[in-house]
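[step 3/7] fold_predict: job queued, chain A
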Amino acid sequence: MKVLNVMSRFNVGGTSQWLYQLSLGLQANHIENLLVIGNCPPSEKEDGRLKEINHVKIQGLGPKTSLILTLQAFLELRKVIKEYDADIINTHTSKAGVIGRLAAKSVGGKKKIVHTYHGHVLTGYFNKRIEFGIQIVEIILSFITDYFLVSGEQVLADIRKARIIRSSDFKTVWPAVPDYLLNNRKELREKMGIPLEKIVVGWLGRKVPIKRIDRILEVASRVPEAIFVIAGDGESIKITYPQYFEAGSGANIRELGFSTPSEIWSISDIALLTSDNEAMPISPIEASLASLPVVAVDSGSTREVVVDGITGELCSKEVDEIAIAITKLVKDSNLRSSMGEAGRKLSLSRFSPQSSVQRQCEGYQDALAAR
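[step 4/7] structure written:
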């Protein structure tokens, strides 16, 4: 079997982590594979691990490119598909999902077209008209897609409800998240000026609107006894949310730029996820591997990562409910420990690279067997 993966860009984020582990896993299983990607926009940081995997760059595949560059990307991708001659063309992310599937279909041959839904942009990203247009495009593309890989049961339910997947040619999959070593907690806290006895609530992600950082800031104002550390790429929260830092407010909020799981979760006692829309988020899995309890908004397939009452707390989007869950964990060290231990056990068993890659390879075999 030979696999060609197509993705818009390899930025620092969950989908790139997914493709990185998939590429390594396929290689370890002696499956030849190539990743085709576009460039990251200036506002995003490219994941440095890209150099470790076999890849080709096509500029116009990335987001925020002109129509001419996009058309050029289509033609260049067709050429790569012809020359590489893979058995499976697996597309990822929205733009690459459109261009990649159309290019693969136009080339023809016996290759199977597989699309992975790491999440979806059917709700929460655009206005209703644009969301409806995206749904129509995805429905049309489904007719030239031989097989679907979907991140989690809730994302699958959303896509089936939108009539994008109508057949049984799909498999739910999950990200591969390897275990890792933590950094020196004492040294990191001293460097950041955070006392060792303070409870730290950590958040890691891209600082974009869908992640609802405003909720974190609202929760922080309701739980002044904890320190909230916000880490990740994007514009400073003091620029995007200046109202939370006026008149001396926001004293219990710290901001980091780019950070690694080893860094942010080493200094944290609790992990927080506040997004309006998620697929199967990776940051809470990484937090669980660090034996941290997770408080998360119950969106997308998050409940397949966070088991309510066992590995953390699932909440509605109401700030007061999130604050109550955080406060309960701040006050109960035994509960933090028990949830953290349960979360680590779950993440090690379910989200291991071996388990994830095996599941995706089974999907590829099903796709090859499909009519």
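[step 5/7] annotate
The longest strand covers residues 2-9.
The chain is about 40% helix and 15% strand.
exit 0
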